[in-house]
Amino acid sequence: DTAVSQTPKYLVTQMGNDKSIKCEQNLGHDTMYWYKQDSKKFLKIMFSYNNKELIINETVPNRFSPKSPDKAHLNLHINSLELGDSAVYFCASSRTGAWNEQFFGPGTRLTVL
Amino acid sequence: GQQVMQIPQYQHVQEGEDFTTYCNSSTTLSNIQWYKQRPGGHPVFLIQLVKSGEVKKQKRLTFQFGEAKKNSSLHITATQTTDVGTYFCALFGNEKLTFGTGTRLTIIP
């Protein structure tokens, strides 16, 4: 049973397009996150949600819009994709509070051409 | 924001040799976590350290939290090919985890 799942695993698209990545966790966690990992492997928090409420928005361009329909899902929509958006995007979840162990999804590799 | 330096950035070792990665913060930490990411994989939680001077062991892995709670280390004894990957420390502060720059370990069989 997959604890944190993401779809799609790979996403190749043209500059200027809009795309979404979906994330679901079946761990019963209250807190979910989106991270971006660039080509140098730097892993950076983008957003965190607790019980569908936005907690962290780490100065991410407003082309990125997270949506949490319920506490088991956190989706990421990206408008007007740019070359610099190419990266691996990881969803993660934890019990309430970022100090708890975080469980990561398998990642979505986004390539913008 | 928090500066989280990890050294070294890369480490190549012969199988059976020991390996250590260090994590340094510019601020005092409430806790620190360590994660491992295999090539092509996702970060996986290894451990959390909370107390000043704390030492925890997991088989061949030894984790240490500095007395001043500003640094931490991960030591692997007698590396095996399964230890290959990138090791990240992650510091909690301001309601989020800030990940270190990572140390990429490769093993020469």
Notes on the protein architecture:
In chain A, 0% of the residues lie in helices and 56% in strands. With 113 residues, chain A is mainly beta. In chain A, strands 2, 4, 5, 6, 9, 10 and 11 form a seven-stranded mixed β-sheet that branches. In chain A, strands 1-3-8-7 form a four-stranded antiparallel β-sheet, with no helix packed on it. Chain A starts with a strand and ends with a strand. The mean pLDDT of chain A is 94. Chain B has 109 residues and is mainly beta. Chain B has strands spanning 4-7, 10-14, 19-25, 32-37, 43-49, 55-58, 61-65, 71-76, 85-93, 96-99, 103-108. In chain B, strand 7 (61-65) and strand 8 form a beta hairpin. Chain B is globular and about 40 Å long. The mean pLDDT of chain B is 94.
Strand content of chain B: over 45%
Termini separation of chain A: 34 Å
Cα-atom radius of gyration of chain B: 13 Å
Unreliable stretches of chain A (pLDDT < 50, length at least 5) are none
Which class best fits the helix and strand makeup of chain A? mainly beta
3D shape of chain B: globular
Order of helices and strands of chain A: EEEEEEEEEEE
Total of helices of chain B:
0
Largest sheet entry of chain A: 7 strands, mixed
Assembly annotation: heterodimer
Rounded to an integer in angstroms, the radius of gyration calculated over CA atoms of chain A is 13 Å
Shape of chain A: globular
Total count of strands of chain B: 11
Number of helices of chain A: 0
What distance separates the N and C termini of chain B? Answer: 40 Å
Most extensive interface between two protein chains, with residue counts: A-B, 20 and 21 residues
Strand content of chain A: over 45%
